[in-house]
Amino acid sequence: MREQQLQSILRHMPAGIATLLGPELRYGFVNEAMQALLGGSTPEGEPLATHLSPLEADLLEVMQQVYQSGRPYVAKAYRLPLAAFDESAPRYFDLALEPLHDENDQTLGLLLFAVDVTAQEEARQHAHELALETRRLDTRLRVLTETAPQITFTTDAAGAYEYVSPQWYYFTGQPPTADVNAIWPLLIHPDDRLRVLYQSDTARANGVGWNYEYRLRRHDGQYRWMLSRALPELHAPDKPVFWHGAVTEVHDQRELAEALRRGEAELQFLADSIPQLIWTATAEGFIDYYNQHTAEYTGRSTQDLGPTGWISLLEPREQAAAARRWVQCVGTGENYEGLYQMRRHDGQYRWHIIRARQLTDTRGPRWFGACTDVDDQHRLREVLQTQYDELARTNRDLDTFVYTASHDLKQPLFNLRGLFDELHRVATFSDPEQEVLIQMVDEALSQFEGTLQDLAATVQNQRELAAPTETLDLRSVAEEVLLGLRAQVEESEAVVELQMSQAPTLTYGRANLRSVLHNLISNALKFAHPERAPHIVVRSELSETGQPQLLVQDNGLGMNLQTEPTPAFHNFERQHPRISGAGVGLYLVQRIVDSRGGHLAVTSKVNEGTSFLVHWFE
């Protein structure tokens, strides 16, 4: 009865139980759990080796060795590929092999226990994988912390350092054997030490992190500003026991920020010291800063002026146009500039130049403007303009008078010339110096005639200075001038070379260009050396800056210049008094060139020749 009860209990146990009898390990008692593990019916008395079984060959061999040796054996977490279960999800069992003995202590067979430990084994394997992953992540984290340009650390609740990255030793120059807990506080600047220790102790006592700056001594003895940040390792509801943080050098950034603060203070002091209305505006065009002089000049505070108050300071008739122009510039980013009348604190409107430019940086676009009082200059310019207009009118009247006088004097001169020629033809004198006197009178009349012509040419040139410009062919104009000087060229047997290929055209006034060429070439013919035929080179070329210029070079008498290469030629000034002339030509050339924005350069050697270089434009 008891045996049947025991078998019933064993049969329904969750652990697999089976007896294997004899050296052939024949199936004896097999409970239901073991039947399920073995995959079906197990006929009693059948040998384990001949019956289909999922057991591995190595396990069968171990069973036989246990039977022969009589020593029990336990296999932990043995993997069984059971047909009753999903093969893709293996099952693990603790297998116990216990020999069965008779009264004579002879081995009858084996008692097999199989306990399913799949859940425990999977948990163990998962824990192993997590441990491997943790070690891998820990290695990666260590590499990252030890290669980053920061000092990383870990402290416990008492403030003792559990870990310090190698950067701390590199920075401080301390040996790896140094006691970090003892030395680190000593490396903090004495002025910062107490504050740092107090803030870190307070943060640990409250279970929070910290963020502060202090100076830490570097390996070269220099104190550098550092930023220390740390956060607690929280495991609710327990209090934190570790703080992890980093120390970053911010010395350069701090000095830069300090320099910027000093610069801003200096700029504001400078802006407040300038006797101008200085202001700044946002990207939308609203004024957010006025300097101190603005309040003093307008008699209004920054609050009174507001973001658009400068418009109300303008003369009422100018406000609308100024506001529209300001809105347009804010929308397009164009520079703002205008001349407006602005009211002073005493109610007087004074002329101001208002300028503003947009600056774009990392903070976005901003406007910087200034209002400059130019009332005195504006009124002075009006007075000067009135005087200039009066002088110009007087000058025109004088030119008209000179031109009229020179023109009106020509007729009496012609009459004198005719009377002198008739007197010279019919009259006789007994004076032995007759020929000398006649020659002197003739030269005086010729000089008088030349002076009248030069005066007329000077006035005419003055009127032609404002003549419109056009694109001119230099060779064509030069040939026209040479055609007018043909008689002088043939008489002196001169050789004139025209080299215009480098810069063949010039945008200039035609009359002005003809006058320049005529005076320079005619002077080269007039002041030729008596011992050699004139050789004149007229070359148009480009300067090093790409501007057109004209070279007129001769081999004549040359000049004695006191201020080379840009001498000043004056009206009626002559270099060679023995040669007839009024000294007007070079004065006219210089005046024409200067009035068009150029200048005349001259190099000359006496008895060797002269070179005139006309820079048409600067």
Automatic annotation (TrEMBL):
EC numbers, comma separated: 2.7.13.3
Reaction catalysed by this enzyme: ATP + protein L-histidine = ADP + protein N-phospho-L-histidine
Signal peptide (residue range): none
Stretches assigned to the PAC domain: 76-129, 210-262
Molecular function GO terms recorded: kinase activity
Pfam family of the protein (one): PAS_3
PANTHER family: PAC DOMAIN-CONTAINING PROTEIN (PTHR43304:SF1), PHYTOCHROME-LIKE PROTEIN CPH1 (PTHR43304)
Name used for this protein in its record: histidine kinase
